[in-house]
Amino acid sequence: MLPVALIHGLIGPLSDTRTVSLLDPAPVVCPDLLGYGTEAGTDPARISIAAQVDYVRAAVDSAAPGARVHLVGHSVGGVIAMAFADRFPDRTASVINVEGNFALADAFWSAQLARKSRDEVHDLLEADRADPAGWLRAGGVEPTEERIRSAVEALAYQPATTVQAMARAVVEFTGRPDYEPLLRGVFQRTPVHLVAGARSRAGWHVPDWALTAAVRYSEIADVGHMVMLEAPEVFGRVLADLLSSEALSS
Predict the structure, then answer these.
(1) Arch. (CATH architecture) of 4-249
(2) What is the greatest pairwise CA distance in the chain?
(3) Quick one: pLDDT band at residue 110, thresholds 50, 70, 90?
(4) Which of 35, 134, 164, 202 could form a disulfide with 121 if both were Cys (CB 3.0 to 4.6 A apart)?
(5) Phi, psi at residue 195, to the nearest 5°?
């Protein structure tokens, strides 16, 4: 089976074993993007969408040299997945876009963070770290012990400097006049699946042309934008189903 690359969003990883295990037997790559996890020491000045695409390409090449890959991008990771598919169409088997930004309107939180000072972003992140249950509630997620543990991990995954740098990178990239043509080109060349949480779907500005061009649109009941944290097993089953359909059609 072709490898699968899980590309995380602005906050937290996309490597929960409860999700990843359900993708077996496909090889799964869960890179820590620049500024995150093992790469948390990355100079924020190096962080851009283009640099993240290069980093994902290197991670895929290390795990499966020369192979085509299924890309799963959540939120900001959806931007990176689509940018990867644009630059490396010959390496992209499909894209599963999980509430990835289609326009600046989808980057409202990134836009807010991009305008704040480094100290302000630091203070916001520290406040969330001090109250992970409150952070979950603010995101529409009912706190449980398990979810609080995941929230603590997610909030510790990146420094404030990374959050600010990625927020600015997303605003810059999705605000470019060539961003929509880039997206349209990916849809024309590559199988793209769209996935949304039922509670957060109204806030996802997916244009009609993308819904029409998508291979499949899937909406996950009773979850919001942080589906990977709120319902990791359900998320894994949805991904596995979509990847199975890709394998059958290839």
Answers:
(1) 3-Layer(aba) Sandwich (3.40)
(2) 50
(3) confident
(4) 164
(5) -130, 135
